[in-house]
Structures are given as structure tokens and as C-alpha cells.
Amino acid sequence: xxxxxxxxxxxxxxxxxxxxFAAWRTGATGRGITVGxxxxxxxxxHQDLGANISPLSxxxxxGRNQREDQDGHGTRVSSxxxxxxxxxxxxxxxxxxxxxxxxxxxxxxxxxxxxxxxKSSDLARxxxxxxxNGARVINLSLxxxxxxxxxxxxxxxxxVNAGVxxxxxxxxxxxxxxxxxxxxxxxxxxxxxxxxxxxxDKAQRIADFSNRAxxxxxxxxxxxxxxxxxxxxxxxxxxxxxxxxxxxxxAGALALLLEAFPNLTGRQxxxxxxxxxxxxxxxxxxxxxGRGLLDIGRAFQPxxxxxxxxxxxxxxxx
Length: 318
Prior knowledge:
globular, two-stranded antiparallel ribbon
């Protein structure tokens, strides 16, 4: 288990802010949980991430067959989830989880967090591929101003009906409401299966750039998304900002819960994270922070009357 004094843990304030260590102490590290990352691909032989990347990672765009990350966005997102504890770089929230990377961006994209970089048809096929290849959680660090259409929505519904849950970035437009597809979190068809995620800074204030909870306040959490350290190779790491890097912290938290409590449904894991958000902003659920700040430690404490067995055989009230 990582030490709180380790370089990897100390390097990235965001992991500490999520209180992931409380889950790690129970033995939960994401092991056995596959997280689908639909993005710009991944560097398959990445120095820090390589051991946690599924060989089933793919490029979903027809005729291209290039799963390597040309931009770096998908690799950085994946680092927040699953950078391993290996005395190098930084450490991810669910550092023993497996990343199923699905490249879906168009080849000439320069800003892969924007929906314009992705075709809805490719995103739909990416969701289907993730479900077919064992993803329990899917992260979407992308967004745009309008819904993604019937083909994407049908694939999203298939995934939700299969028990898959989603962490989706709220967007970086300083808006009062999340972008799409994050806005689907409050759609009755998908309710309870999606957490839309804003970004906060080291002072636990919503980031200036982050879209707010708005109409999605009941299904919104904030996670670290300012000065996040990711994607370490050689002697350097990236320092990044954006809801793109807040959302995968939530995806990692879902992976921790699903490993620790194998009888939980995906929707139950979502509900636990939403109910245990750390208070921020106005009292209760509000239009800025939604349900509050992601707090994995609180999620691993008793929050209800239901008892679920942990993977190690112990029983914990949830």
C-alpha cells in the first residue's frame, strides 16, 4: 500500500484531497475492475501506466487502427485513474485498476475534450465496445453544447442497462450548467448511472473555468481539477487543469467501491458517492457544487442500513 509520505502520493495533491487513502487502507485499490476511457487513445508502453493498460485497448474509428495517443489527453486522463504505485511518477485513485482505452477522436483534433473532436457514431461504438469487453465504469472527459443524438443515446442506454456506470466531465466554459454528454446525468433514462463532475482547486473552491452543477445539481460532484500532476515519464510530469482531470477521479472512486463491495450494483456505487459528497458552497445540494466534493473516505464509512460484504470477507454497513 502507498505510504502517505511517498513521493508518488505527495506529488499530487488531488489524490489526497479525494481521501482515497481511506479506501486503500481497507485493501481497495481497483484490482479486477476495468475502467473504459473513451478519449484520444493511450501510450501503450507508457513508463508509468503500461502495466495497467488492457491489451484489448483499441481505436474505434473505422479504417485507422491507431490506438496510440497522438495528443496525450487520453493518457493524462488515464493517469488520474490508474497510475500504479511503483515508486515512480504519481499514483492514481484506483492504482491497480485496468484501463481499457478506446480511441475515438478524429485525426486532426487539437482539443480532444471538445465534442467536435468526436463523431457521435464513433462514441456510440466505443460505448458498446467497452461494455462488450468488461468495463464496469466508463469515463468521458469530453463535451459540447448540444445533445449527441439518438445513436449515442441508444448506446448509452445499452451500457446503463448492462450495469455500467459513468463519470463525465462537466466542461470548462465557466457555464451555469454542464455540457453534453454530462447533461445526460439528469435524464430520467440514465438517472442514477452517471456522475457529472466539476473541478475545484487546492482551496476546495470551484475552479473559475469549471461549469457549475446547475440543472444537474442532484447528480453532480466536484473533484480536484487544478494543478493536477499526471502522465510522468522520464524526469518530467504534466501539470494540468480541467474537468477532464476531475472526472477520472470519480471514475477511480467508483472502481474502488465496486472492488471493495462486489455485491454493489453500479447505481448503488453512484448513489453512495453522491450521498457522501463533502459539503461545499451553500448548505445541502446547490447549483455550484451539486452534492459537494468527492470524498472517498466518507464513501467507505457506513451511510445507510444496507450491509454488503467486502472482497476480503468482512461486512460493512453501507
